[in-house]
Amino acid sequence: MNHLAPHERTERTERAERTERATAARRPIPPRAAFYVLASVVVSFLAASSAPTPLYATYQAEWGFTPITTTIVFGVYAIAVLVGLLVLGKLSDHVGRRPVLITAIAAQAAAMLVFSTAGGVGELLTARVVQGLSTGAALGAIGAGMMDINRSRGTLANAFVPGLGTAIGALVSGFVVQYLPAPTHTIYLGLLVVFAAQAVAIALIDETVTRAPGALASLVPEIRLPRTVRGAVLATAPVMFAVWALAGFYGSLGPALVRTLVGSTSAVWGGLGLFVLAFVAASSVLALRGASATTVTYTGIAALIAGVALTLVAVDRGAPVLFFVGTAVAGLGFGSGFQGGIRTVMPLTRPHESSGVLSLLFVVSYLGMGVPSVLAGVLVVHGGGLVPTSEEYGAVVIALALLALAALLLRGRPQSAPGVLVASGGTPAVQAEHADASR
Predict the structure, then answer these.
(1) Of 177, 134, 171, 158, nearest to 45 (Cα)?
(2) Rounded to the nearest 5 degrees, what angle is found at the Cα of 218, between the Cα atoms of 197 and 83?
(3) Contact present, 233 and 402 (Cβ < 8 Å)
């Protein structure tokens, strides 16, 4: 028997009807489409991070700063990403993916406005800090969100889309700078429009995790890994550090080196080196997706050593064609090394651990990208100059790759068949592909 008073029943009915109308009006995006929306956000964030690369020469000419400043601007972004990953990387496991992503996109949009109106190094640094913090906050949430929807495809996408975004940003920005008016404004305003559209799309996807207590506690930085992934992370961290150290070089000093080799001031040439590296890296993820994680990782180390060695020979001889061949081979090493690390570690995580573990993997990656490139900028000015510093940087990357190889040979690493997850006990776990497809 219902003992509610008539007015109480009416209030409950009205609330239920309002909830139903709000749900119907929202019309959530289907899971498959939501997966691609999340992947597109990674692409746009990484494209925005590489968009300033072809512009560094323009900024340097207008504002009169040295190569040290260029690498500091690049390094500040990497440090801000690290802070974002350490402080905000696990937040989405507690408050949900959507709130974190919408806030991060809004911050990226604000950074684009600062970039487009920048009149000096101070504004450039401010924009890079905001951009880095929002990227760090978003990377773990997006990667975990894609794995929430489809674990196997999400693992692959986490390795593929960063390279794709970096490649697109470097190339498109180069063409915009070279051929369109107001280059220091146009690329950023275009990205602003993209972010606005993505914010609307994110608002329409379903939340993939339930809210959990501990959001404030998750903001306290800590380096803690679940026991099930510790060995895998220790085995793959040197590889990921090495490949991203190379990416840091191409993103900071690469444009100046390429222009020196080809004898051109074109902005397209300035971004072409990073584009080749990142595009081949992204392509290698797809090409090697059927190979085991162990095979992919060793392929990455071998290609990284060979590719960097070729680029060193090219720099020494002043041979631009050989330089781009070496860059392509090194790109294979970049993509394979990064993919191998992701595919070794992430299948071992549980859903509520995915965001935090992925964030820590990106911490290792961005340390590799940021710290060596800043040191290289100092050496360009106070050491032997651009070309000798480039050769020294390449030698260090080769040494890091050899160190990574030694670490893998000494420790060994878990090997899982393509498309099969490894359960916490070390046995293959059946993929819930049918469940994913029906969600």
Answers:
(1) 134
(2) 65
(3) no
